[in-house]
Amino acid sequence: MNRPMEGWDCHVHVFNSNCIPKDGHYRPAHHPLAEVEGIAKLHGVGHLVLVQPSVYGTDNSVLLGALAVQPGRHRGVVVLDSSVSDVELDAMHAAGVRGARFNLVSPVGESTAVEKRFDALAPRLKSRGWHLQWYVQTKQLPQVAALHAGSGLTCVFDHLAGVRADTAAGDPAWHALAGLSSAGAWVKLSGWYRLGAVEPYTALTSSLRRVVHQFGQRVVWGSDWPHTAFSSESMPRYTSTWQPVVDALGIDHATLLRKRAPSIYE
């Protein structure tokens, strides 16, 4: 049996045309696990972190089905209702889930008060060694910091924590990020086209360098495949999604991908 390549892509989505999405801002095309596995394998990536997309709400069946194809190979980040049972959480953990996602950006992201859901879920996530992954704009960083303070729950940010190409050097976001970094938060280097940049994304170079300087080893790269803002015919090239990191940090892509699971996914 051929062993998978060792590199990690820490932010992808899978979609199944048989799963009806919630009414929202996009209707996904069919993009199954095998498709992204094939693309990733060509570039030395054998492990994926599957992130629940907003259009499926708390119906994690597509993601969990994908994790079950080859148990232990990939990891997952789900979206949860406060009433999820311990039995369900334990089953998800066994399947490879290591985090839950709160979405404060997408139109169908959050339907209940985020503070109430945080209070209900945070202790249960922490007890299983999970993290809480946030999709936010920079103006929401202080809110996230206040919620996590004293919780002991690891905080992970999608898409450069919302820092954009036009985020000024003196923007309050940098102060908020410094505090979050001191508290042990992580940041995903991903989602460039969501942040006011176009390929080759050089407009984000200075912001990307500053984020990595603040967070050090607590950063991971993700392709954000299949790039839901694009049609299947115009999706960004897979290599283009790591090139900004390689260029900004002066490292090779093999170093970027890492040869072991980042600790938040162990």
Name some characteristics of this structure.
266 residues, eight-stranded parallel β-sheet, globular, alpha/beta, 9 helices
Note the overall shape: globular
Number of DSSP-assigned strands: 8
Strands in their spatial order, largest beta sheet: 1-2-3-4-5-6-7-8
Largest sheet: 8 strands, parallel
Mean pLDDT figure = 92
Termini Cα gap: 23 Å
The radius of gyration over CA amounts to 17 Å
Beta content: 15-25%
Number of helices: 9
Low-confidence spans: pLDDT under 50, at least 5 residues?
Answer: none
- SSE-based structural type: alpha/beta
Helix percent reads 25-40%
Describe this structure in words.
The protein has 266 residues and is an alpha/beta fold. It is built from nine helices and eight strands. An eight-stranded parallel beta sheet has the order 1-2-3-4-5-6-7-8. Helix 1 (33-41) links the parallel strand 1 (7-12) and strand 2. Helix 7 crosses helix 8. The protein starts with 6 loop residues before the first strand and ends in a 9-residue tail after the last helix. The model has no long low-confidence stretch (mean pLDDT 92).
Reconstruct the topology from this structure:
Layout: E1 7-12, H1 33-41, E2 45-51, H2 61-67, E3 75-78, H3 86-95, E4 97-103, H4 114-127, E5 131-135, H5 141-148, E6 154-157, H6 172-182, E7 186-189, H7 205-215, E8 219-221, H8 243-249, H9 253-257
Parallel strand pairs: 1-2, 2-3, 3-4, 4-5, 5-6, 6-7, 7-8
